[in-house]
Amino acid sequence: MFGVVFPNRSFPLDISTFTQIDTFHWVLDMNHFVGEEYDSIREVCIFLLNNFTLPPDKALAVYIQSPGSHFLFCGAVTVSRPSAVLSLPWPEPGSNAAQLQLTAPEVPPLSAKIGVSVEDLAALPSLDVAAEKKIERLALKVGENLFNFMQSFCGVDGSKLVVPMDILDRWFKKFQERAKRDPEYLKGFAL
User: Fold this and answer.
1) Looking at the whole model, is its pTM more than 0.85?
2) Which residues does the UniProt record annotate as the domain Hikeshi-like N-terminal (predicted)?
3) Could you give phi then psi for residue 46, rounded to 5 degrees?
4) Least enclosed by CB within 10 Å: which of 50, 78, 132, 140?
């Protein structure tokens, strides 16, 4: 059905490495894989196997769980996106991060786990949560850069900030020129 690879950490692992909870849920106990150093695993590549056909309205969702926390959604693969490298932002142990229930609620997990679940595609928030967060951080950093630039040219009129009319043009030209001069400049925004 599916396989996973931990980049630079493992060979491909197939579904038999996971414990099947029910027809649509599987769990990989990280204690068997890396022990207490589960948080050193920062990425997972999940892929559908060639002979498996997932309905077009379904996805294989990937979740992670630190000891004492709930499962946190990381991303998904579909028939149209049969593989993905997903970031694993492990929640703090003991935190109550998210939704998927693969273990009994009254028994806190003693080890970190990766869960895989067949779910309705429409019900998932995004196929790649980490990519959305990177885009959000990028937008915030660019906005902060613009605000700081505008602030250096603005005046105060009562309770209003007054900026020159051409301030956006001036900022954008400066931004483009700096990006052309220094290729590392834009990489600083993406971190």
Assistant:
1) no
2) 17-123
3) -110, 140
4) 50
DSSP annotation of 38 reads G
The two tokens of residue 147 are 């605000």
Rounded CA separation 105/66 (Å): 14
C-beta separation of 88 from 142 below 8 A: no
Q: Which tens digits make up the pLDDT trace of 119-170?
A: 998 888 766 666 666 777 777 888 888 888 887 877 777 777 788 888 888 8
Residues 26, 18 contacting (CB under 8 angstroms): yes
The beta-carbon contacts of 21-25 under 8 Å, at least 24 apart in sequence, are 21/102, 24/117, 24/118, 24/119, 25/102, 25/115, 25/116, 25/117, 25/118
The answer to whether the beta carbons of residues 25 and 62 sit under 8 Å apart is no
Q: If you write DSSP's letter for every residue of 46-84 in order, what string do you get?
A: EEE-TT----TTEEEEEEEE-TTS--EEEEEE-SSS-EE
